[in-house]
């Protein structure tokens, strides 16, 4: 960092005075293809890796030196996860070059270089620890045992500090894709005549070469020790250890080799994408390897995730106001507080803090089992505060939603985003595209789905079904599906007439708002249903405590609030005959040369996160359910296992594909054929659940035919404990 502190040296190396701001922008390259894997993989790695860090702290692991070193490696990986995956994803989306944000990228580069050096050295210590332990456990305990392990913590910290202070940073570059030590790596010498040799980082080169050499030697020694050892170990254990070492070597060697190559040559774009994914996997993939290779670690992971072994006696999960309080100070800053919506959010924050403190007090009361007559004054005052804050919270939220509906209520904001003044009515008519291929499936499939699905809703509302939590949640999902089915049928008319946004803007806007809200509600309801299924598999009493009785309606309220948020704060999902698939851009498929509007302002961050998180949760829940079913010791028939896995697979495929299409549509223009495919999958997801419900569930099928044909079923159809198609 002495380069950053010494302004003259910093200016000689990282000056941005060579070109103007406009010229620097011309050299920036937007990388949506790199943004998506960064965000998706980063979210997945965070979900799998961060709990693993806490698992290392458990008593049965932390007393071992290797787990102490792995805990340190996990902390460094977590820092890299934030700096080099999530942050890089945002920077790729914006196409930022060094001179557009020099201070940010310089500091980020320092953190990147220091974390990579720390990762390398910690991995070396970890392999040394394992090697010495295999050779002699007694000798290993003398070197790494007890508090002596923290000496290695200190060495790693000093090593990272050296790379942060005395070496050149590893700078982000949207052009070269992989980070580079040269801030002008993407600019030719004749445009910017700077000596590129001065950016050569000898320390980083030696670190990477030494790291690769050590890994190769360690792998050879490891394999030799395992194969020739006289210790009585099983052949399977030998193979497992060799495989782990191989994975560790490959994971770390790929980014090390890419950093060496980038100092000598320009890496092709396709290769750079592959190396970027490999580097990110080296950062975040260790969590998956730990879960895959270690059964005890896997059990500890599920303990952390599901709080299986650390629930309090009262069963209450405490909430902390400490995460919310800093947000209150941020809202109170002048640049935020002068806006009405932030003033209302500040008031809402105060009410939320009060209710959060109440929940902490409730936790103590639950633990002590304090009833009203043991502390009547406390209970009464606490109840008055809770009721008052809750009413105030509801009213403030309602006012905030009305204030934030600025797109409709604020004509200037609406005209900025959805103005139809760019072209005349005749010019808009030239962009009309009639999609007869989209009309027929929309109308036919919509009618079929309505005929099958509407009676299913009536069946689910019957007493023998509706008393069970899973059927209540399925009933809510069915209502949302029916609304979206009606909308998709309306799409058929829009496709037939080629009605573009500016032909009926208010109609499109309201229809898009309803579509976005219902899709968000559908996603959240699916997640809640999957949670209910997973919890029910793990523990039926716990599932009854969380989802039983009227408590299911609390989840109804959560879904409703989630839908209100998307209808008020997110941009609508507008149907576009030109693009076939619904889109957030009202001018989709119209060139920017015709309508000079910045299309990036239509990026819907809320919807993007909803779809990405939905994808990750669905896939994670499906994998967890499959693992639980396959590894459970409960005596279940093999046919039941296969049936449950198959049904979960159907649900995952149904919901994953439309989410993936909606994510992709925000970054790239999909071909027409692929858009038709995405539209088909959206309609299949919305309407086919009724067919699946009838196919997989015998009791609902009997009730369905009873309703349709007015058959008096004798004897009464037995009700399955839960809809297994979920």
UniProtKB/TrEMBL annotation:
* TM helices/strands, residue ranges: 34-57, 69-91, 103-129, 150-171, 205-226, 246-266, 272-293, 344-367, 438-461, 473-494, 506-531, 552-575, 605-629, 650-670, 676-696
Instruction: Classify the source by domain of life.
Output: Eukaryota
Tell me the InterPro entries matching this sequence: 7TM_GPCR_serpentine_rcpt_Srt
The record's annotation in SUPFAM superfamilies points to:
Family A G protein-coupled receptor-like (SSF81321)
Q: Which keywords does the record carry?
A: Membrane, Transmembrane, Transmembrane helix
* Claim: Membrane is one of the keywords in the record: yes
Q: Under what name is this protein listed?
A: Uncharacterized protein
Say which species the protein is native to.
Steinernema hermaphroditum
């Amino acid at each position: 960092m002495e380069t950053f502190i010494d302004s003259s040296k910093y200016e000689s190396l990282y000056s941005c005075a060579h070109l103007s701001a406009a010229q620097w922008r011309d050299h920036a390259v937007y990388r949506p293809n790199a943004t998506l894997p960064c965000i998706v993989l980063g979210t997945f790695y965070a979900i799998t890796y961060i709990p693993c860090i806490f698992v290392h702290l458990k008593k049965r692991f932390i007393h071992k030196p290797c787990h102490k070193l792995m805990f340190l490696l996990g902390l460094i990986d977590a820092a890299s996860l934030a700096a080099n995956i999530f942050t890089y994803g945002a920077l790729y989306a914006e196409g930022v070059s060094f001179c557009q944000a020099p201070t940010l990228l310089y500091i980020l580069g320092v953190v990147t270089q220091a974390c990579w050096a720390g990762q390398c050295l910690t991995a070396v210590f970890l392999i040394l620890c394992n090697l010495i332990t295999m050779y002699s456990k007694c000798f290993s305990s003398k070197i790494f045992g007890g508090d002596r392990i923290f000496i290695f913590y200190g060495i790693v910290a000093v090593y990272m500090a050296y790379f942060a202070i005395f070496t050149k940073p590893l700078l982000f570059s949207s052009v070269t894709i992989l980070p580079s030590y040269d801030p002008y790596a993407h600019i030719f010498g004749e445009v910017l005549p700077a000596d590129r040799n001065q950016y050569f980082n000898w320390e980083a080169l030696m670190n990477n070469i030494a790291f690769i050499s050590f890994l190769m030697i360690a792998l050879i020694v490891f394999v030799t020790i395992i194969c020739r050892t006289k210790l009585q170990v099983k052949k399977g254990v030998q193979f497992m250890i060799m495989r782990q070492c191989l994975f560790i070597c490959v994971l770390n060697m790929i980014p090390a080799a890419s950093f060496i190559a980038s100092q000598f040559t320009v890496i092709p774009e396709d290769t750079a994408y592959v190396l970027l994914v490999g580097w990110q996997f080296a950062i975040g993939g260790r969590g998956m390897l730990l879960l895959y290779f270690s059964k005890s670690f896997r059990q500890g992971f599920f303990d952390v995730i599901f709080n299986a072994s650390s629930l309090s006696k009262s069963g209450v999960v405490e909430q902390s106001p400490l995460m919310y309080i800093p947000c209150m100070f941020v809202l109170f800053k002048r640049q935020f507080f002068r806006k009405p919506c932030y003033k209302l959010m500040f008031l809402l924050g105060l009410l939320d803090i009060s209710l959060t403190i109440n929940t902490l007090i409730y936790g103590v009361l639950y633990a002590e089992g304090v009833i009203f007559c043991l502390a009547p004054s406390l209970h009464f005052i606490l109840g008055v505060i809770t009721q008052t804050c809750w009413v105030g919270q509801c009213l403030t939220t309602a006012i905030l939603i009305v204030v934030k509906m600025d797109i409709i209520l604020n004509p200037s904001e609406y005209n900025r985003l959805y103005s139809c003044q760019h072209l005349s009515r005749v010019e808009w008519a030239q962009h009309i595209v009639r999609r007869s291929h989209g009309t027929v499936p929309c109308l036919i499939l919509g009618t079929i789905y309505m005929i099958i699905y509407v009676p299913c809703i009536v069946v689910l509302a019957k007493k023998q079904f509706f008393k069970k939590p899973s059927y209540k949640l399925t009933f809510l999902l069915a209502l949302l599906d029916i609304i979206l089915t009606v909308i998709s049928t309306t799409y058929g008319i829009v496709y037939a007439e080629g009605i573009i946004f500016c032909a009926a803007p208010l109609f499109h806007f309201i229809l898009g708002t309803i579509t976005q809200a219902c899709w968000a509600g559908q996603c959240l309801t699916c997640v809640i249903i999957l949670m209910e299924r997973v919890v029910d598999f793990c523990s039926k009493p716990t599932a009854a405590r969380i989802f039983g009785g009227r408590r299911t309606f609390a989840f109804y309220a959560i879904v409703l609030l989630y839908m209100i948020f998307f209808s008020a704060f997110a941009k609508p999902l507008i149907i576009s005959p030109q693009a076939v698939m619904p889109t957030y851009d009202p001018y989709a498929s119209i060139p920017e040369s015709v309508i000079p509007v910045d299309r990036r302002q239509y990026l819907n961050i809320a919807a993007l996160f909803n779809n990405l998180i939905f994808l990750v949760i669905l896939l994670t829940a499906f994998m967890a359910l499959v693992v639980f079913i396959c590894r459970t010791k409960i005596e279940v028939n093999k046919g039941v296992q296969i049936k449950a896995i198959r049904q979960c697979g159907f649900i995952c495929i149904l919901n994953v594909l439309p989410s993936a299409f909606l994510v992709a549509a925000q970054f790239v223009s999909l071909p027409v054929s692929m858009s038709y495919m995405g539209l088909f999958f959206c309609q299949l997801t919305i309407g086919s659940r009724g067919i699946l419900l009838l196919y997989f569930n015998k009791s609902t099928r009997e009730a369905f035919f009873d309703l349709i044909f007015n058959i008096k079923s004798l004897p009464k159809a037995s009700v399955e404990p839960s809809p297994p198609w979920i």
